Amino acid sequence: MRKPRLPAFLAAFEVRNFRLIWTGAFVSSIGTWIQDVALSWVIHTEFKNPSYLGWRQFASELPLVSFMLLGGVLADRINKKTILMTSQFVQLSLALVLAALYFTGHLSIWAIVAVGFITGLAQSQSAPTYQAFLTSIVPREVIPRAVAMNSLQFNLSRSIGPPIAAAMLVALGAAWCFVFNAFSFVAVVVALLLIRIPAAAPNIRAPQGMANSLKEGLAYVRQAPEIALIVGLSGALSFFVFPLTTFLPVVADEVLGSGAGGYSMLLSAIGLGAIVGAIATAHRGGFKGRGRFVLICFTGGPLLGAGAVLCGRQWLATVLLFFYGVVQTSGSSTMNGLVQELAPEAMRGRILSLFGFAFRGGSPIGALLLGYSVTAFGPAAALSASLIGMSVLSATLLYRSPRFREI
Fold it and tell me: Domains plus CATH for the chain?
């Protein structure tokens, strides 16, 4: 047996295909964060209506809620590389559309909403496919570490992207942030072209219709209480917690008075904390009691986020959001690894689409409602109430779910 060349938490990087897709996704994620920061700041400063941030989030996430289940079925039936490649080209084109509209002075909030909707439609097909693809190119025992390393690339990009975006906004303007994002998708395309996947064993089962295929996945989740609880918990996380990053421009500007620089600092603090959380998760790998660990993280993490939006000081909010990033990412990465381990290979795409549906499904409604709540009650009160709601729910589950605690 060959001795591993890398430390245990980097075991997934022993696999060439994983190294390729990780690098491509990392470059693309940096571009996505640069565009996201620039677009959020444009909405906040040029349209001056907090509810528009909620509308943009709603439009981006709604297709994920509506069509991600279909994406999971397709991931189990169609060549995964084809789905991923198509999605990259669609998102590249949409980033160029945003740049062209901004350059020519025609970027309206409704154009932003429309682009967000189409982008979400592309991601609804690629997101479950990417997760299923990622775990199909590494050995099963490496899956928890591969998931954690994927979380690491996403959060490393979240720490790098916002400061680059802030610098580009000042030096070049928002349009060039969109152009940068467009070209970042080329990295994923190149990685997919270089990846070679051995031919899969032929499927000897009779072909199913798509509706029956989806029903089979839903039936399996209903009969697997641990997976069902994970799906429900991820939906609550999406509704109560995820909209925090959507409204950070308002927190930075109206609560902390720190402007675009403060906004990028807050995002970077979450990203840096998330890097620590992802590395720690990869180092731990699988362990007994991961269900308990997840619920503890989702009890404490939102409280740190609530403290950040209530404290009124930039330095303290930055510190609290760093630890928020550590705790939330540790919980999310562990939960993601759990669901991928528990999902059987033949239905992994469908189960991951159900998980992804829940993981993203609450966000559009949560962001939309929070947009109006922020306008009515102020960002500090509205955001902290939502975060505390998640903390209370997780603490209740921690007390009442002994079976899940012992996974």
Answer: 8-195+208-405 (1.20.1250.20)
Tokens found for residue 204: 């000897």
Distance of CA 267 to the CA centre of its chain: 14
Q: Cα–Cα distances in Å, from 40 out to 45, 58, 98, 199?
A: 9, 13, 13, 43
Calpha distance 338→406 (Å, rounded): 12
Which residues, including other chains, have CB under 8 Å from residue 34's CB and lie 6 or more apart?
161, 162, 164, 165, 168, 177, 180, 181
Phi, psi of 95 (to 5 degrees): -65, -40
Q: What is the pLDDT of residues 328-337, one digit of tens each?
A: 988 988 887 7
CA nearest to 33, candidates 143, 126, 168: 168
* Model confidence, pTM: 0.71
250 contact partners, CB below 8 Å, separation of at least 6: 44, 50, 53, 374, 379
Neighbours of 83 (CB within 10 A): 20
Query: Helices (DSSP H) in 255-378: which residue ranges?
Result: 259-284, 290-310, 314-342, 348-377
Task: Determine the angle formed by the axes of helices 143-171 and 174-194, rounding to 10 degrees.
Answer: 150
User: 128 near 68, Cβ under 8 Å?
Assistant: yes
Residue 30 burial by Cβ neighbours in a 10 Å radius (0-12, 13-18, 19+): buried
Task: Give the C-alpha separation, 218 to 360, whole Å.
Answer: 17
Could you tell me the sign of the dihedral formed by the alpha carbons of 67, 69, 71, 77, in that order?
negative
**Are the C-beta atoms of 49 and 333 separated by less than 8 Å?**
no
> Along the 407 residues of the chain, how does pLDDT read in single tens digits?
445 566 666 777 877 888 888 899 899 999 998 998 899 888 888 887 878 888 888 888 777 766 666 655 565 566 677 788 888 999 999 999 999 999 998 888 999 999 999 988 888 777 767 777 777 777 777 777 777 777 778 777 877 888 888 888 888 888 999 999 999 999 999 988 888 765 554 444 444 555 566 676 677 767 777 788 888 888 898 899 988 888 888 898 888 888 878 888 898 888 888 888 877 876 666 667 788 899 999 999 999 999 999 998 999 999 999 999 999 988 988 887 788 777 666 676 677 777 777 777 787 788 888 888 888 898 899 999 999 999 999 999 888 887 776 77
Q: How far apart are CA 385 and CA 377, in angstroms?
A: 11
